[in-house]
Design a protein that fits this description.
The chain has helices at residues 2-10, 14-41, 43-46, 65-70, 78-85, 146-159, 167-172, 207-217, 238-247, 257-297, 299-307, 312-352, 362-392, and strands at residues 56-61, 90-95, 97-98, 102-109, 112-118, 121-122, 139-145, 174-180, 186-197, 227-232, 249-251. It contains 13 helices and eleven strands.
């Protein structure tokens, strides 16, 4: 063994090995850094610490010009709803139910009366972000979108020199409601705003009241849901965007931004990882070229060692140990550099997302070990084949 090491040291090119070492280190670090950065940043889009807190999406069908002219309805069928419920990203699905009767609301102020036609919708209570109060006889609790109040205060009221209203003031106002259905059936009720929703952009009434009023005022009508609310497990799941696009659905808000951002992040991480793997492949080529040149320079001496009884495995071992040692050193330094760089960018991320939790190190470490095993395996095989060729010669 000492004799082989002496032969090896005489013709080692430090420049060639240094080139392999630096190139392999750069490639390994690039791959590990892309994996680890993805693991660390993804909770900001889809985890419990996500800055995107919306876990609900509202689906509707796209309204085409042809469907409008033909009078086609854009409601969801039972099979379509069942398909949505079967998707991996959906944890709960609710239907919007619209009132099948006419609603007229009026308000008396200062001896004058103002009124307007309106509508009601309902969803299952678990999807409402405001708690319903106990319902009183003859009174309809109503939840309005918070955007409606902002639109009045900063748009209509300001332009018409009207007083601005707070949520508390609006909740004190009582509305006179006239509900008119089939065959002249009519109900007179009182309405009261009990809260404002930031999740649902519609005029909400309790689901129990909607079911009862539809049965009383429009018994022959069967309401078909034209919108579906879906509670998703992870708003950053790019499967949501794919499903919506494939089925021609529309989403009422920007809740798919997280999915699009995550998908873009995956693409960027994949490109960076591919670059790192390319650098690692080039460094592997540099190392093998260096080893082959080293073996070629010592071809005569190695053939003599083989002729006097040294086995190909024993002659190959020093070269194989050299490559494995370099690969181990590359892996250790790459992990150390990864931990240092990770600490630097985590400090920046925590300034933006104080509650952001660190991603696991395991995926990056497993990728590094996998690259080490693959590269070392091919190094060992290539060196052994080169020595076997000398044996045949």
């Amino acid at each position: 063994m000492n004799l082989i090491w002496k032969l090896l040291r005489r013709h080692i090119s430090a420049g060639q090995l240094a080139g392999f070492f630096l190139a392999n280190l750069l490639g390994m670090l690039t791959v590990l850094l892309s994996v680890q950065f993805y693991e660390d940043i993804i909770p900001a889009f889809g985890g419990e610490d996500s800055f995107i807190k919306n876990t609900y999406v509202i689906l509707s069908k796209r309204i085409a010009a042809s469907s409008t002219l033909n009078g086609e309805t854009q409601s969801f069928t039972d099979s379509e709803i069942a398909e949505i419920e079967g998707q991996r990203f959906a944890s709960n699905v609710g239907r919007f139910t619209a009132s099948q009767y006419q609603v007229y609301a009026s308000l008396s102020m200062g001896g004058s009366q103002m009124g307007t036609s309106m509508f009601f919708e309902s969803v299952p209570d678990e999807f409402v972000d405001v708690t319903w109060p106990p319902q009183r006889d003859g009174e309809v609790p109503i939840i309005l979108p918070r955007a409606y109040l902002a639109l009045y205060n900063f748009g209509f009221a300001q332009s018409q020199s009207l007083p601005k209203l707070s949520e508390g003031v609006v909740s004190m106002i009582q509305l006179d409601l006239r509900l008119r259905g089939e065959g002249g059936a009519e109900q007179l009720m009182k309405g009261r705003v009990v809260g404002f929703s930031t999740r649902l952009n519609t005029v909400l009434v309790p689901a129990s009241f909607m079911q009862q009023s539809n049965l009383q005022l429009a018994p022959s009508s069967k309401p078909q849901p034209t919108r579906i609310i879906v509670e998703v497990k992870n708003p950053a799941d790019d499967a949501i965007a794919s499903f919506v696009q494939d089925h021609g659905y529309e989403i009422d808000d920007n809740s798919l931004d997280a999915g699009r951002t995550t998908y873009f992040l995956k693409i960027v991480a994949g490109i960076v990882m591919a670059v790192g793997l390319l650098i690692s492949a080039l460094s592997f080529y540099i190392l093998m070229l260096s080893i082959f040149l080293l073996v070629q320079k010592n071809a005569d001496k190695l053939q003599n060692l083989l002729l006097i009884g040294y086995s190909p495995a024993r002659v190959s071992l020093p070269y194989q140990l050299l490559t494995i040692g370099l690969n181990v050193l590359v892996l250790i330094l790459a992990i150390a550099a990864l931990l240092w760089i990770r600490q630097l960018y985590l400090e920046r991320l925590w300034q933006i997302f104080p509650a952001l939790s660190e991603g696991p190190l395991t995926p990056a470490l497993l990728v590094g070990i996998a690259i080490f095993i693959v590269v070392s395996f091919f190094n060992i095989i290539a060196i052994r084949r080169k020595i076997n060729r000398l044996t045949k010669a």
